[in-house]
Amino acid sequence: MGSDLENLGVAAGINLGLATIFIAAYSVAIKMPINTRVYFPALLQRDPSKFKETGKTGLERFMLNLRLLDWLHGALKMPEEELIATAGLDAVVVLRVFFFSMKMLFPMALWGAIVLIPINKTDNNVQQQHAVNPKSSFSAVDQLSLSNVQDRSDRMWAHLLSAYMFAFWAYYCLWKEYEYITRLRLGYMADLQPQPDQFTVLTTEIPKVDAQSSETMSQRVARYFRVQYPDIYFAHNVVINANPLWALVNKRDKTANKVDALRIKMERKPRKGRPMHRTGFLGLRGPKVDSIDFYEKELSQLREEAATESGIIQSSQKRVVNAAFVTFRNRWGAAVAAQTQVSKNPQLWITSWAPEPRDVYWPNLGMSKWHQGLRRLAVGTAVFFLVFFYMVPISLVQSLANLDSLRHIGTPVKEIVDVPVIAGFVSGFLPGLVLKLFLALLPLLLRTMSTFEGHPSTSTIVRQAAIKVYYFQLVNVFFGSILTGSLFEQLRSFVSQPTKLPETLGNAIPTKSSFFITYIMVDGWAGFPAELLRLFPLLLYHLRVALFVVTDKDRENAMNLQRLHYEELLPSLLFYILLGLVYAPIAPLLLPFLLLFLVIGYVVYKNQIINVYERQYESSAGLWPFVANRVIVALLVAQITLLGVLSLKLASKVAPFAVPLPVLTLVYSVWLRDRFEPNFSRYPLESANEKDVIDSVKYPSWDLRDISDAAYTHPALAKGLTLDAAIPSVEELKEQQLVPVKAKYRRASNPASAASTPRTSRAPSPTRNGAHVTTEDELDPGDKV
Amino acid sequence: MGSDLENLGVAAGINLGLATIFIAAYSVAIKMPINTRVYFPALLQRDPSKFKETGKTGLERFMLNLRLLDWLHGALKMPEEELIATAGLDAVVVLRVFFFSMKMLFPMALWGAIVLIPINKTDNNVQQQHAVNPKSSFSAVDQLSLSNVQDRSDRMWAHLLSAYMFAFWAYYCLWKEYEYITRLRLGYMADLQPQPDQFTVLTTEIPKVDAQSSETMSQRVARYFRVQYPDIYFAHNVVINANPLWALVNKRDKTANKVDALRIKMERKPRKGRPMHRTGFLGLRGPKVDSIDFYEKELSQLREEAATESGIIQSSQKRVVNAAFVTFRNRWGAAVAAQTQVSKNPQLWITSWAPEPRDVYWPNLGMSKWHQGLRRLAVGTAVFFLVFFYMVPISLVQSLANLDSLRHIGTPVKEIVDVPVIAGFVSGFLPGLVLKLFLALLPLLLRTMSTFEGHPSTSTIVRQAAIKVYYFQLVNVFFGSILTGSLFEQLRSFVSQPTKLPETLGNAIPTKSSFFITYIMVDGWAGFPAELLRLFPLLLYHLRVALFVVTDKDRENAMNLQRLHYEELLPSLLFYILLGLVYAPIAPLLLPFLLLFLVIGYVVYKNQIINVYERQYESSAGLWPFVANRVIVALLVAQITLLGVLSLKLASKVAPFAVPLPVLTLVYSVWLRDRFEPNFSRYPLESANEKDVIDSVKYPSWDLRDISDAAYTHPALAKGLTLDAAIPSVEELKEQQLVPVKAKYRRASNPASAASTPRTSRAPSPTRNGAHVTTEDELDPGDKV
């Protein structure tokens, strides 16, 4: 009796214990200066001075900050505006999603505890079922759920009423949150400094230049846009396929670093003599060579190749692709150009709002629509099969979760499993962990697939990956956990008999609440503090520092600065929102567990966003519509499930009244999209105008020409072209004020940092020499490239 | 043996006979001058001189033009460009649809006759079935169809191959036609004279003016657009709800006409004394009054009311609705404004390309999106029920079509029915006719519903009605004819088991080919010539002339000038295209009948378009995307049907190869829409620019101010406001050169004719006095309205 409650208790104990251990360990570990690069990489990057000022030794500082949970206080007290300013709006939206879910689910949990659980508990369906069929498991958790209400009972009116209340509350929350985030987004964009993407449009599918025509791509773009957008066209950057150059430049830098490292090693331990290595397989075979000579030779060869490649880029049309960034005189012009169809053939000269320079995914630019279409079809098919045939690991988890099946393995296993703590561990921790590990591999795969689809910006790639991950989780974790038999079989039966869906859901969902409660505990209660501790990056960092780090660059690489993986976090979060909404009217016991999960997650991620993750690009809350649309999906699934449960419980009076709910949700979603979504894909002219006017007052001396030069240039060109002029040394560059030494590598991987400090990167800019930037004022018909 | 072939022959004979009679009657009737207003109303309206020049008597002219079929020659010889110039592009698109279907179906028919029919005929499945079960009807028509091929036969490879060939041929035809019509559309719009709609955008959902604010709607619009579209904003017309005034004015005109008629009657027959009538129910009860006095009193009262109403319009904000027509300095500006989101709230200040002035459906302007949404939901639900429960008449037709059921009525009926000619008539003519009659009522109803949905232009209303009619026909005529049981039951079974659809179709379709052949013969072979003869309008006109016509206006009204009812013709045509595509691989015998139908239809409608239909508005081929999308639907239905037939015939080797066909069609349709559809909803900036430049050369003295005044004014205002100035007589108006007398009524129903002759309607324009037109140059903050 109550064995499942006991198991739940054990699982809760284990997970809370783990959480405490992780948090304690983290609280200690962050005090050690040696871990600064693991726990504060983002802060270190933003404000290095913070970590240098104190002259105290590590131990002194450690003793000084003995208040172990001050990090918690620090994280929680930071207001939203400051967070937006430091970490960007994209990161803040993630926290808003945590906050939104808490706000939406807390009243539901309260209502469930006060009204629904008493109603369920005072009936006795579970007991009766057990009495009729003693073999069926008797579950104390089920006693608190709708399962305990007898068939045909009028008590189900309460659940129906709750479902309506929950739905309207969810509509309200979603509406308010969408409104709030839209305001944040518009406000954020209005407050931004003048930036190139505000003035720029990406145009693709530029018709190919005839072989006979003497017109270059650049001339063609200038001519077309000057005619079609008279007065507002300003300049353009033709996109150049610098990907081969990019590869060469990267290889060159790695080799240069290797040479540096070898030299430093030799200086430190001169008696070891010049380092040698073998050139063959893994350095184990082949002739022995002098390493420094060898790599220097390789380096000079790479430099030559890069010079040749950059020569091709400069002197011919070979590397010009049919895409261009077109800059307009004002934001209004760019907003107009991004939203209008310019060509008579709508498949040519397609314009879209340009992503931020650092958000541009260069390798995908210039891919034709046809090509993209084919790739998307291929990826779509692949994802379909992945989603529906990735169930092998999931079913493995299912069999692990089942204590009975473990007991059947043999006597020793049975004895071990029968120890209550281990039973709790097996049913409460192991399945979730295994499932989690399998799922951890997935986002990388799906991100690669999304990249392959040919989207022009990283933020779009991440969004597409997030959508794929979400559907994967929905099908595999949610449906995979609650349905029996192969997923593909299930799909077939749903396609041929879609009306059976509510029944199937209604049959399976109520019995699975304890499984999902343990899943929540493992993933959130213990998982989020583990994310805080960053055990794996911590070990990796120290291992690297101990073994490989020689040059400064090595140390920087070892830090392994990472962005927040939205495509992993958001789908998981959305999956939990789905669980919450589905179980709110059916088994409200799940909600308190979920709420604790959300609280822990909120704190952990707020801390990590401040200290750990690098902000690689900013899409200004561009992921929010994805979240909102998935919440709608969750509502639909929840409402269809309730309909199924009610029908199965033969509530013939109540069930028909549940039918309008999903319809209502669909109507609501149409309104919601119509009201808010356009602002996440377009720049309203009103906003563009306002910013044009205000910024002309706020930044009176600011000139568009300052940024339009280098902003939209392939990062390889900024690096590669410096090679032409007799390979200037870093000192020379420093004198030219071209690149601050520290920023050299960052700039290369991040062209926008150049744009945000336009004045330093101007004067003798190498990209200017490359002549692929053409402002209208300068262009003349003889212009090359 | 072959009884169904005989029946088909009889039906063909009857219908061809009828066709001959109709055509002969028409050929004679059009020679009679008395019928001019029935057979040449459009021509009469365009070019009245054509019908007056000859001094000959009616008989002389009749004898002169004894070549009876010269109308046919006249219709056929008119080239497309001339037709576009006289009848407009919308009408020409209808002819293109006839032409396109012929082009698409003719090679299919040929291939069917040469390849498929021999393959079918040389098998013997039908005979065997008959031998096994003698009760089953033996059909000679089925012997020519796929039904005659034995189960599992390898002959079905031929049908599969044909389906692929047909699909690719259909793709090609559709692509070429879409391209051609897009070219026509862009060319047509490029050749148009300067017109107000080229410069104008309709903006709706203007935020309500506060009660405290002293700003009028007009000032608000001017302020907003001048800021958001600087440089290109030119002027605007606030929309005024003149619908009450409109009703009063119409009633006033009717009463005035009544008074005129009474006076003329009295003059003609003075001895009869002053006409009297009773005021009570139907003029049968109540006190007797002097009619002229009575109506004159009513007339003056109506004039007063109209004056009061127009006073309200002029002096207050009460009748101003939150919509406006905004005119821009050039076409480029209007194209930009129509395509961009201007407000931060995408549900406010919604802009869309303005319909032509004569296309504007005034009563719907100013309806809020919410209101429209609710209405569309209501209409959608109503249409759903209409579509699925309108089957009573259809099943009646079904039972009529069945000779056996008629025989069961009783001996006398049986004897009559067994006469071969009558049997042919019953099975070949009657069912189609009854079906047709029921269907004739429908477009009116669906048009009313579409009007109720709140679309701002007549062309959109017609398009929406056409979509509804199409789906009605698809479900009721197509599925209703081939499926057994109630349609709603069928729908339920399809929703719960969608994969059963191909099987059900495959089961029913092949056996219904003779039914549809007779349907085609009745509708096309006899129906189109009946359309030519216009028997009903002919009788109605002469009846009216004989009984009611007194004033000139009466005669004009009796003419009953009608537009081409696209919402009836196009769905029918598309239904036949569906039949053609479905039966092309299955029962190719149907195609020759269909082709003859198309030829007759093409000739008839070309003639009618030239002579009969009034062009009430021009949407520049705006209906074509609807047609193209429905052809795609037809292809899908055809391919799914074939899949079903092949599966039912156990062609386990062949059937799987039919699965990719619908997928291919879907992919193709995505491409097709993407490639062409945007040009039917947007004005590409390239085109707008070109026209701006060319027209500035072509019409150098043309000034935008000439048209922007009166173009977008509620038709009632042009009429109603003339009442203020002491009700000027027609002579006075003539002197003012305001309205040509003849054109007075036409202008009222057709505000665009005023716009297309801008110079005459300018100077002391009454609408200018109404001050609801505001150009930017004139507006000052104290401006009223």
TrEMBL record, chains A, B:
One of the record's GO molecular function terms: calcium-activated cation channel activity
Location of region: Disordered: 744-785
CSC1/OSCA1-like N-terminal transmembrane domain sequence ranges: 8-177
Biased composition regions of type Acidic residues, renumbered to the chain: 776-785
GO cellular component: plasma membrane
Annotated TM spans: 12-30, 97-119, 156-175, 377-401, 421-446, 467-488, 573-605, 626-648, 654-672
Membrane-topology descriptor: Multi-pass membrane protein
Domain CSC1/OSCA1-like 7TM region: 375-645
Compartments it resides in: Membrane
CSC1/OSCA1-like cytosolic domain sequence ranges: 198-364
Protein name per UniProt: Early-responsive to dehydration stress-related protein
Organism this protein belongs to: Klebsormidium nitens (Green alga)
